[in-house]
Every structure is written in structure tokens, then in C-alpha cells.
TrEMBL record, chain A:
Record protein name field: Uncharacterized protein
Membrane-spanning intervals of the chain: 31-50
Source superkingdom: Bacteria
Taxonomic classification: Bacteria, Bacillati, Bacillota, Bacilli, Bacillales
UniProt source species: Paenibacillus paeoniae
Keywords assigned by UniProt, alphabetized: Membrane, Transmembrane, Transmembrane helix
KW Membrane (keyword) present: yes
TrEMBL record, chain C:
Signal peptide: none
GO annotation, cellular component aspect: membrane
Membrane spanning residue stretches: 7-27, 39-58, 79-100, 112-133, 145-163, 183-203, 215-238, 267-287, 303-321, 336-359
Origin superkingdom: Bacteria
Name the record gives this protein: Uncharacterized protein
GO biological process, one term: spore germination
Regions annotated as coiled coil: none
Membrane topology according to the record: Multi-pass membrane protein
């Protein structure tokens, strides 16, 4: 996904957040969670922008579960 | 505004002075002095134009002929004895005077008595009861509500001759003090519903209410939705039918449009005429209406989507002829559709305000000039004109104007989505509208009942027009003389507070 | 947002569509590769796991304090560790739904919109699902009630329109390769059925909880039936080459041509899949939001809907640099992964909870 598109996505998201108004009077704990989620998104954005082949969970799971692979290989 | 309580004075000159100060510059207010008998002087206070002046004159003549005898009671006491039974109410404050004379009563003030006497002699020029303009039917009563609250209430009372038909009055509007009547049938309408309606209306704090539309905006659940959450109707039989289903009817003074709450999308697609014609025909017409509901919403966007992105879905012969007509058109399908639809909407709006003499000419203008000429000029293609025409007819099929305009409005975003994203955009639009409809409630009733949430027992009224002799939840009776069963107020008493 | 009540019928309808959404399109190809001629039997075997998972979900719901599985994890593993376990489970769900969404988006993009950036397809779907989630699960349930009959109708329509082209002889010989390949294929179907476990997050919203088991049963039956029908139709149409097409049903729809009028109905398939995916992603989205909200005891769950959606969007891109990795993952390791997460793990929770219940019972009885 190209960088301009990602910035557009963030623009939309922040624009929606700004106009949404459900953020007034947010309690501390809720605000923490929201910020964590947004930070994670930011981290991923940056990560994907820098390296499109970022190590991803699918790979990790494939490696972790590789002993189980033969179970589901076609028998012929 | 008028919430002080200014007591009247005993001496008539004082009262008159107070009144004149209160009603200064109200040149339509009249104060008419006359003699009562030989010994007393009285004054009528009224607004000319609101009262039956002949009867007032008769009253004056009668009172002029009264004889008072000097004995151990005062003349005023004798007068008070004679007047009981003639007047409708005794009033004691200046504000009450205003209240009464603005609804057409005549107030009698007598020198030496610090009370006023109200006579209900209200009569003014009002519109005769006529065929409702926007909701006429082929079979059915041709009475429509008028601007007079008294007439409207009478029309309901005539149809529902029971003491269970309750009519609660509220006044809304700081200056207009408009009379609002909340009508419901005790025992059929859920008490929570009635209370909710009352509460919402009582919360209205506004300078004036001129039309029920204002009330509707104040009390509906989601004012931002394009869909109406109250049904507005001019027909007393539709209002009475709603009352019999357990709904609440809100009548507003000075407007013939009554509001019915709560309402679901399916009741907005029903016409009272459905219930007067034979059920097979009515069912067929109902199905026609449902299909045209979808057509009105989806045909322009579907056309744009198919033509721009999904040519392969159109059968080849049709595709060829469409392509031929569109060959010389300089605009892409989306722009063409948008232009034509906007033009059509403008025509329709213009048509509403046309004087009758010009009306016919304009329809010719619309059809020939715009449709034909634009096509030959190569600005739009004839399939596009067809599409716009079909859509227009489809939206006229919807019996209630408010739903029709919602669909007309929603067409445009759908066209945009279809023009940009093709069928996927169309689907996104449909999903979006469905989500909105599913989350909409009208006074607690989910907007899409009985489809979602599913209430299978009520499906017969949606899928078809069930015959009148088919009672719900009972074995079929073939007796054609059986009366219309009262439906229980089930679907509106599943009322629960908004979840948020 | 988290409190709308639904009926057990609505839940069954939603879960029915939820499982079927991607299944009907993807399954024939994968199961054919494994079980060849016997692939049509796989749903019948997978059905068993379906019943197991529904039972498991219900049991877990009953065992959970306040009906929330998050609380169960906390009571089993202690508050802090329980929250960690819950978060891991949520991350697992993130992964699964991201793969599913990516799959859907690639399908739409490669077959219909080659030029549109995928982010638009994923983004618009997430916006709609997020909106529905924000309005509450009862809205999702109601939209489901409207869409599911349409989806089912069109699926059945496509299958019926295919009847003239079908060749039952493709199904013979029966069980040519023995039970092994058949079991492999049914494992894949099990993977899809196991997603029914997510219902455990939604049980607290059901009004008539006594009917859950009955409607859960019918839900599984319904899913099996539709899977069976579509498997049969696809296989009878193209035989073993179904294994080579990624989307056999789409290709089957291309076969339909009646009177030169009903042609090129792939757009119908797309419509069916879009509506179905909307439901699937909405349910996952809701479950994730609910999971986070329960784990951290949020006061206003509505505010995290947008951040979760945004994160989900990026995770969809993170899970696979290109579609090939994702596709091969789904075909093989994905099944084991999903079975571990939605069957073994909940089974473990269940066993632990039951054992702890015994100990508690022992403790009180000896007093």
C-alpha cells in the first residue's frame, strides 16, 4: 500500500475522530486503550511503509505449526 | 408569556382601562358597551372575526330586557343569579380573558362584578371539509382534516364512538399557544407510549408552532435521519385506523396534518385504500408498491453502475441499443444521470407552486422540451430519459409523501456510489441504508418491524393485505360478515427505552 | 452499545451466515485438493465438530461468571494473567479476521476491480461494519435477518440454475482413496465450523437463553446443508479440476447462460459475498470490541470502535505481503491454527473450569 494512501487513511480516521464528539469526558482508562490502539496502528503504518515485507504473524504461525503440515497435505 | 394572574376590578371603568392597556394597538379587539336591564351596564370583549356576532346581538337584546327589582339583594347579585346557565365559564383574571377571546369566546364584564363571563360564540370562516388533496383514494371516505381543531376532533369522535377514545389537550408555543390534542384509545394504546408522547411534547419550548411538522421535528427519535418517524396524514380514516391499532394521533390546531406515532417503514408503504378494496387486488398493488419502492431507489444507480463498469451483465441486444443511443453523448453515465435527475426534481418542485392555468403547459414543456429536445440535441440518451421517468413514476407510487422524499433524496448518494465504485458501491449504499434503518426506532418501535426483529405473527399484514375476515392467531373463519378484528397493541407495547 | 438484546433465532441466523460467508466460495477448491471425489461428504463429517463447538460455547458461557468469558479467564488464571490470556485470544481473532478480510478484498479486486487500491475495498467495508458495531449487536442481527434470506436465496438460485450442467457421474467411484483423504478434507471444514465458538461472546445478549441449544443445533444443520449443496453442485459441474480453481463457485456462475439473457452472473456472486462478508466481519469486529471492552472494563466502548477498525485495516496488510502467502496459509496451516484457537484452547478452558468446580465442590463438602 503506498504512502499517500496511508496518509489519506490516517486523515480520514483523525478527521472522523475529531468530528465525532464522543471523546469528550473520556475516562483515563478508556483514553489509555484508545491511545494504545492508535499507537499500534501508527507503528504498523510506519513498519509497512518502511518495509513492505515486514515479518508478519502469518509467517510466525507457519513456522510454529510446520510439524503439523503433513497432516493436511494431499496424500497422493 | 401570559402567566401572571391579574385580577379584574369591580368597577367596569377600571377593568376597561386595564384591558385597553393590555390590548393597546390591537385594533381587531372590540369592547362593546350596553345596558343590562335598566340598572346595570355591561361590556362585551371580543375579537371581531372570531365570533358569531348575530348571536352576540341576540344575547345583548335578551339581557337588555331583564328586569331587576330593588330588594335586599343587590342588582349585581340578581344578575349573577340570572346569568348562571347562560354563560359557559366564569373567569377572574385578565390573562384568562385573552385566552378565551383568542379562541373566539365573548367575555361579558359587568360594572360592580369583579368577574367576567365567557360565552362560547366562536365562529369564523373556515375551510369546508373536502377531499384531502394529497391523499385522495378511489374508494373510501372523501373527508379530510381541516384547520379547525374542533372539526378534526369531531371527525375522529364520529368514527370511534367510545368513551375509550381519549383526547388530551396541551398548549404549545410561547406566543402561539397552539392547541395540541393527543388522541389515543385507552386499553389499546400502551400507557408508556402515551406518556412518552406527552412528555416529549411537553418539553417543546418554542415561540410558536404553526404546523405539525415542527412538532414532528421536536419529538422524533432521530431528526438527522432521512426517514420519517411519524406518519403525517390528512385522512381521518387513516388516523382512526392507527388509533385502532394502538397508536397515538397528534392533532395540531390550524393545520390539517395529523401525526401518528409510532410508525414502521411498512406502515409508511400502506394506503388506507388497501383495506377498502378487495384483498387480492390490494395484495397485488401492495406488491407493486414494494417493487417500485426498490426501483425508485436502485434503478438510476443500477443503470449507472452497469453501464459504467459491468457491461457484461446487460443482455447483448439491449447493450447494443443502449450503446447506440449513447454514442454521441459527451457525458459519462454518472454525470448524465445526475443532470437528468436534478432536472426532474427541479421540475417537480416547480410544478408544486405553479398556478393551475400554467400547470398543463409546464408538463408539456417538461415532457417534450426537456426530454425530447435534450435527446435530439445529443445531451442525454433516451434510455436515460426512460430511467428517470420510471424512477419518477415509482416515487409517486408511494402513498405517503414523506417516504417519497426520503427515497428521492437517497437516490443521489446511491448514484454517486454507483458511479464511483460500480456494483460494489451500490451494495455499500444498500448495506449502509439497511444498517441505518435497522437502528432506527420510532418511539421505541424498531423501524423495520415486523421484518427485523422478526415477528412472524404480523407478517400477514406486510406480505399481503390479509382479508378482513381472517383473524390473527385463530382458525380461519369463512364468514364474510365478520367485522374487522381489533389487533392487539402488541407491536407497540414491546416498547423499550432507547439503548443508548 | 453492548447491551442490545437479541433472540436466539437471530443469533442462529447470524452465525449461519457468518460461517457460510467465505466457505461456499473457498471450500470446494481446498477440499477437492485433499479429498478429491469425496469432497462433497466433508461437510457431513465436519458437522460433528459443529455440534461440539456449539455445545462447548454454551458450556463455557454457563461456566463464566457474569456470562463473560473474559471473566472466566481471569478467574482461572488470576486477574493479570487472565487479562493477558484474553488479549492473546483477541490478537488471535485479529489475525483470523484480517486474513479473512484480506481474502475477501483480494477476491473482489482481482475479479472485478483490478485498478482500485485494495485499501479502498477493505476500508469501505470496515467503515460499514464499524458503523453497525457502534449501533450495537441488535442492529447487526437485524441487518442479518434481512440479508441472510437474500443471500441464501441467491446462492440456491445459482445452484439451481446450474442443474442442467451437472454431471453426477463425476462423483463416482465413491471412496476411491479410502477414509484418509476424506478425514483430511473434513478437518478443513472443521476449521470453518470452529468459528462458531465466537458465539460465546454474544450469548450474554440473548434474551431467551433456553432456546440457544435448540437453535444452535438448527444452525449447524443449516450450514451443513448449504455446504453440501454447493459442494455437490460444484463438483458435479467440473469434477476434479475444482481443485485448481481458487474460486470454483465464481467460475460455476460463469457457466450459467439462459436464453442469452441471464448471462455473466458473476456480479451476483460478488453481491452474495459482499453481503455475507459484511456480516462476518461485523461479528468479528463486535467480538473483538467486546473482548477489549470486557478485558479493560471500559466505560464507553463506543470510542474504541474506530481505533480497532483502523488497526484492523493495517493488520490486514501486515498479515501477508502478497496474496500468495495468505492463500497457501489458508490452505494448510490455517486450519490447524484455527482449530487450536477455537477448539483446543476453549476445550482447555472448559476442562480447567470444570476441574476447579470439582475442587471447590470437594472443598465445601468436606467442610
Amino acid at each position: 500500500m503506498s504512502i499517500p494512501l496511508m496518509m489519506l487513511v490516517w486523515l480520514f480516521a483523525l478527521g472522523f475522530g475529531y468530528t465525532s464528539g464522543s471523546w469528550r469526558g473520556l475516562q483515563k482508562r478508556d483514553a489509555w486503550i484508545v491511545c494504545t490502539l492508535l499507537l499500534l496502528s501508527l507503528a504498523l503504518t510506519v513498519g509497512i511503509a518502511i518495509n513492505p515485507q515486514l515479518p508478519n504473524p502469518t509467517e510466525w504461525v507457519e513456522q510454529a505449526l510446520s510439524p503439523l503440515k503433513p497432516l493436511l497435505e494431499p496424500v497422493n | 408569556m401570559n402567566d401572571h394572574n391579574t385580577p379584574l376590578a369591580s368597577r367596569i371603568e377600571e377593568t376597561q382601562e386595564m384591558l385597553e392597556r393590555f390590548l393597546n394597538d390591537c385594533s381587531d379587539a372590540s369592547m362593546y358597551h350596553f345596558r343590562i336591564g335598566e340598572q346595570l351596564s355591561g361590556m362585551f370583549v371580543f375579537f371581531s372575526g372570531l365570533t358569531h356576532e348575530d348571536r352576540m346581538d341576540e344575547l345583548r337584546q335578551e339581557m337588555a330586557g331583564w328586569r331587576f327589582h330593588p330588594d335586599n339583594t343587590t342588582f349585581q347579585q340578581q344578575f349573577q343569579y340570572k346569568i348562571t346557565g347562560l354563560c359557559s365559564e366564569e373567569i377572574s383574571t385578565l390573562e384568562e380573558i385573552i385566552d378565551h377571546i383568542t379562541t373566539g369566546s365573548v367575555i361579558l364584564l359587568v360594572d360592580g362584578i369583579d368577574r367576567g363571563y365567557a360565552f362560547s360564540l366562536a365562529e369564523w370562516r373556515k375551510r369546508a371539509i373536502e377531499d384531502p388533496a394529497a391523499e385522495s383514494v378511489i374508494r373510501g371516505p372523501r373527508e379530510g382534516f381541516t384547520e379547525s381543531m374542533i372539526d378534526n376532533r369531531a371527525m375522529l369522535r364520529r368514527r370511534l364512538r367510545s368513551q375509550k377514545l381519549k383526547m388530551k389537550g396541551i398548549e404549545v408555543g410561547r406566543i402561539t399557544q397552539s392547541h395540541i390534542t393527543i388522541a389515543y384509545i385507552e386499553g389499546l394504546a400502551a400507557p408508556e407510549l402515551v406518556r412518552e408522547v406527552e412528555d416529549r411534547i411537553a418539553m417543546i419550548d418554542i415561540d410558536g408552532v404553526l404546523e405539525s411538522g415542527t412538532i414532528e421535528e421536536y419529538i422524533e427519535d432521530q431528526p438527522y435521519s432521512p426517514f420519517p418517524q411519524l406518519l403525517s396524514t390528512e385522512r381521518p380514516d387513516a388516523a382512526a385506523a392507527g388509533l385502532l391499532e394502538g397508536r397515538v394521533v397528534i392533532l395540531t390546531d390550524n393545520t390539517p396534518m395529523a401525526l401518528i406515532a409510532p410508525v414502521s417503514l411498512f406502515s409508511l408503504l400502506q394506503s388506507p385504500e388497501d383495506y377498502y378494496e378487495r384483498f387480492l387486488i390490494a395484495t397485488a398493488i401492495r406488491w407493486l408498491r414494494y417493487s417500485f419502492f426498490f426501483i425508485a431507489l436502485l434503478v438510476p444507480s443500477g443503470y449507472v453502475a452497469l453501464l459504467t463498469y459491468h457491461h457484461e451483465m446487460i443482455p447483448s441486444a439491449l447493450l447494443l441499443s443502449i450503446a447506440k443511443s449513447r454514442e454521441a453523448i459527451p457525458f459519462p453515465a454518472l454525470m448524465e444521470a445526475f443532470m437528468m435527475e436534478t432536472m426532474f426534481e427541479a421540475l417537480r418542485e416547480a410544478g408544486v407552486r405553479l398556478p393551475k392555468q400554467v400547470g398543463a403547459a409546464v408538463s408539456i414543456v417538461g415532457a417534450l422540451v426537456i426530454g425530447q429536445a435534450a435527446t435530439s440535441a445529443g445531451l442525454v440518451s433516451s434510455p436515460m430519459v426512460m430511467v428517470v421517468a420510471i424512477t419518477g413514476i415509482a416515487s409517486f407510487l408511494l402513498p405517503h409523501y414523506s417516504v417519497g422524499i426520503s427515497i428521492r433524496l437517497l437516490r443521489f448518494p446511491m448514484m454517486f456510489l454507483a458511479g464511483i465504485f460500480g456494483l460494489l458501491g451500490l451494495l455499500m449504499g444498500i448495506i449502509g441504508i439497511t444498517i441505518h434503518l435497522c437502528s432506527l426506532r420510532s418511539f421505541g418501535l424498531p423501524y423495520l418491524s415486523p421484518m427485523a426483529p422478526m415477528m412472524v405473527g404480523e407478517w400477514t399484514d406486510v406480505i399481503m393485505r390479509p382479508p378482513a375476515w381472517l383473524p390473527r392467531k385463530r382458525p380461519r373463519l369463512t364468514n364474510s360478515g365478520g367485522g374487522l378484528r381489533n389487533k392487539s397493541g402488541m407491536h407497540v407495547s414491546k416498547l423499550h427505552r432507547k439503548q443508548e | 452499545m453492548l447491551n442490545g438484546k437479541i433472540s436466539s433465532v437471530q443469533l442462529a441466523v447470524i452465525m449461519f451466515q457468518f460461517v457460510l460467508s467465505s466457505t461456499v466460495l473457498l471450500m470446494p477448491s481446498i477440499t477437492t485438493r485433499l479429498s478429491e471425489k469425496d469432497m462433497w461428504l466433508t461437510p457431513l463429517l465436519g458437522m460433528g465438530l459443529g455440534f461440539l463447538v456449539v455445545w462447548l460455547a454454551y458450556k463455557l458461557f454457563k461456566l463464566s461468571p457474569e456470562g463473560s468469558i473474559v471473566r472466566l479467564m481471569e478467574s482461572l488464571f488470576g486477574t493479570f494473567l487472565g487479562k493477558i490470556v484474553s488479549i492473546l485470544f483477541i490478537l488471535f481473532q485479529f489475525h483470523i479476521v484480517a486474513i479473512s478480510t484480506r481474502d475477501y478484498a483480494e477476491f473482489i479486486e482481482s475479479n472485478f476491480f483490478l485498478e482500485t487500491p485494495i485499501v479502498v475495498i477493505i476500508g469501505t467495508m470496515l467503515i460499514l461494519c464499524g458503523w453497525a458495531v457502534r449501533r450495537g449487536f441488535e442492529v447487526i442481527a437485524r441487518t442479518g435477518q434481512i440479508f441472510v434470506p437474500i443471500i441464501t436465496l441467491f446462492t440456491v438460485l445459482i445452484l439451481i440454475l446450474l442443474i442442467p450442467e451437472l454431471n453426477p457421474l463425476h462423483l463416482l467411484p465413491f471412496m476411491e482413496r479410502g477414509a484418509g483423504p476424506l478425514l483430511q478434507g473434513s478437518l478443513v471444514v472443521d476449521g470453518w465450523f470452529s468459528q462458531l465458538l465466537l458465539a460465546v461472546y454474544i450469548f450474554p445478549l440473548v434474551r431467551d437463553q433456553d432456546n440457544i441449544r435448540k437453535w444452535g443445533f438448527w444452525c449447524v444443520i443449516g450450514i451443513t446443508f448449504v455446504m453440501l449443496a454447493s459442494n455437490l453442485a460444484v463438483f458435479m459441474l467440473v469434477g476434479e479440476s475444482a481443485g485448481y480453481y481458487t474460486y470454483p463457485v465464481l467460475m460455476a456462475a460463469r457457466y450459467i447462460a439462459y436464453a442469452e439473457f441471464f448471462e455473466h452472473l458473476e456480479a451476483i456472486v460478488m453481491m452474495v459475498w459482499v453481503l455475507g462478508e459484511y456480516i462476518k466481519i461485523s461479528v468479528y469486529y463486535y467480538v473483538i470490541t467486546r473482548g477489549i471492552s470486557d478485558t479493560f472494563r471500559l466505560k464507553k466502548p463506543e470510542v474504541i470502535v474506530m481505533p480497532v477498525g483502523l488497526l484492523l485495516l493495517f493488520v490486514c496488510f501486515w498479515v501477508g505481503p502478497d496474496f500468495q502467502t495468505v492463500s497457501s496459509f489458508i490452505a494448510n496451516t490455517g486450519t490447524s491454527y484455527i482449530l487450536i484457537g477455537f477448539v483446543l484452547f476453549p476445550l482447555l478452558l472448559c476442562i480447567l473450569a470444570v476441574i476447579r468446580g470439582w475442587f471447590k465442590g470437594l472443598g465445601t463438602s468436606t467442610k
